[in-house]
Amino acid sequence: MDTGLTGKRALVLGASKGLGFGIAQGLADEGVRVAIASRTMDGSKAAAEKIGKGVLPFICDTGKADQVDALVRDVTAALGGVDILILNSGGPPPGKAQGVSSDQWRNSFEAMFVNLVRIADQMLPGMIERKFGRIISVISSGVIQPIPNLAISNAIRPALVGWGKTLAAEVASSGVTVNAIAPGRIATDRLKQLDAANAERTGRSIEDVATAARGGIPAGRYGEIEEFGAAAVFLASEKASFMTGSILRVDGGQISAT
């Protein structure tokens, strides 16, 4: 399939590893000029070197507004603008809904919502002017079916969905689409962390937790980051120009809720 992405420009957040890395790699393979960002320059440089294809590394902690603004400025200077924006923030620590401090709620909301929207607001005018843009938020299956012991994520990620659906209607006539991808259990370091936390919480071994989790996935396995990246590449492509305001699930059939 010709994605029509050759020569387009993309910024992928949280791309030093995991889901963001898979997306950045998939876009670069399609001829996209990719800028990646992560919390450390060393992480971004290592990921850029691994992907190759002229990927540009940047640093950005989405919890810090000054770094967010610097990222927008530096990426715009390097690429001349962005056609594809991947909003991917790190996940908050696992835990219950009870007893979360007000500071933790505020900090997580800034990093997982406020500053992602801040980046999008700054990148949108160029997309609208060029009559082409793709904003894709990496969310969680917890927005559809809350995940036990992930209270902060379950509470905040839906805000990004509501914002995206509202924005999608506002910019659709300008050739800009706004969608979200909901990963199921994709084999990443983050998933290992969650399996370990669940093992500690329930008194089981990590392997028992992982085996039980795979048993609840109709596909019978964890997904790969390349599979997740391929879904993002499709949403970014010209072929997906009539898809907007949607949530695309990549979960092996795990979530049965509508």
Automatic annotation (TrEMBL):
Alphabetized CDD domains for the sequence: BKR_like_SDR_like
Family, as annotated: Belongs to the short-chain dehydrogenases/reductases (SDR) family.
Origin species: Microvirga brassicacearum
Protein name: SDR family oxidoreductase
